[in-house]
Amino acid sequence: MSSNDLGPWFRVLYPHKQLIKRLLKGKCELCKQSDTIEVHHVRKFADLATAGTTPPAWAQVMANKRRKTLVACRACQDLIHARPAPTLTQ
């Protein structure tokens, strides 16, 4: 389904259509699984980096995409919120 199929109101009601397109793909941007997906969000890019430490893999993916959002499956979302942050495999 393209934005043209949704009509001219799509641009007005959904200004963040890139995120919607990413959600409609239905795949985790970390592990590429198509399980239940969620959106992980950070307030600002500075929240991705902790001084003196190497950022976790998910933060590096967000930084490389230059996005404050990440479409993730439930398992990856749990890993993101785990303490300490484990390494993610792709």
Could you walk me through the main structural features you see in this protein, from its secondary elements to its overall organization?
- The chain is of the alpha+beta class and 90 residues long.
- It is 34% helix and 11% strand.
- The protein is built from four helices and two strands.
- A two-stranded antiparallel ribbon has the order 1-2.
- The protein is globular.
- 14% of the residues are buried.
Keywords:
90 residues, two-stranded antiparallel ribbon, globular
Q: In a nutshell, what does this entry contain?
A:
The chain has helices at residues 9-13, 17-25, 57-65, 74-81; strands spanning 37-41, 69-73.
Q: N- to C-terminal separation? A: 28 Å
Structural class: alpha+beta
Mean pLDDT: 76
Helix count equals 4
The H/E string reads HHEHEH
Number of strands: 2
Described by the principal axes of the CA atoms, the overall outline is: globular
- Rg: 15 Å
Helix content: 25-40%
Spatial ordering of strands, largest sheet: 1-2
Low-confidence runs: none
Major sheet:
2 strands, antiparallel
